[in-house]
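Attaching the record inline, Q. Sequence:
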Amino acid sequence: MCNPRQRVLAAIQHKQPDRVPVDLGGMRSTGITASAYGQLKKQLGITTGDIHVFDATQQLAYVEEPVRQRFGCDVHILDEGLLQEWHDYTLFNGTQAKVRADARFESDGKGGEYYLDASGRRIAHRSASAYSFNSIFFPLEDAATIGDLDTFDWPVLTDEILTQMESAARQLFTQTEYAILGTFGGAFLEGGQSLRGWSKFMLDLARNRTFAVALLDRLLAIYLRNVELYLEAVGDYIQVIHMGGDLGTQNGPQIHPRMYYEIIQPRQKVLWERIHQLAPGIAVFLHSCGSIYELIPGIIDAGCDVLNPVQISARGMRPERLKKDFGDKLCFWGGGCDTQHVLPFGTPEEVYEHTRQNIEIFKPGGGFVFSQVHNIQPDVPAENILAMFAAVQDSWDY
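Structure, as predicted:
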């Protein structure tokens, strides 16, 4: 009989654990939105505890211990967003919750709100009809030269954050048996898009390659510096480190595979190999949405151990194909239930059967941690969430 940490490590190492490991809320793309979480707690009859929104832009709730226990979860998140004080917050549907004390908001006068940074600048917006925020501020949007990149204040992890992270990680490691998933980031394509804006960085790649490469090189340098600080603080405690970086769309990669292999993959490889050098026992976890089948060989070659969210509804991402072609090289962390169509719109019976089928495909020989494909959105009925986890518990034995 494995404990949760042993179970997850066995799956990552392609060993068959006692049962399929389960994740809900172990990182920022395997979680549940706060409004859906409130409904789920009601359905489960859990009346204690506040709803804590630790990721305000995605409106993600911290998954509490009674819920983790109910669903047999094996993973706990280590995230800066949980290391804050909290204050009262009202969700878009009127539900009362708590939000990080450093999260600041401003009404847009139309039923929506702006998300503000520490200086009071509007950096994201949620319209009255939306469930989450979209970025509206891109700090390097107006950069015109490589010299502009050199004068930018690239963010370095502070001693305060590192000390908090180390304390939280040590506490989780010594006081629980969960596998601990550390939030880091380290995105390249998505990092450039976040700094320049999606359209502008895509044009940089197409028309101004020298500038785009210079930006990516500066991202790599700051990621290398930060990951060394990060692993020095928490490397003795975490088992998995999360790398960000959406590379796909619904129908294919965002960029031509040749561009990925020329520009993005080599920098991923430098960063991920450095992580393996510094912390050989920690698995590199890549979150990349979309249709990325053509890129997976390069992702593996760069040093990725775990792939998430395994968007099985995207082109070329059928579970059978992924397991057959890459199941001995990657641990699939996700792909357990489609969150685009089945989980929000199927009947509980359809959700149950769909989830069972996917688990049976992914679980043989290990290399699989169950999670739904990305975060559970506000329009998902609580009954469907329960049906999904009923299928998990009915299918998780080997």
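The chain has 14 helices and 15 strands. The first helix runs from residue 4 to 12.

More tomorrow.
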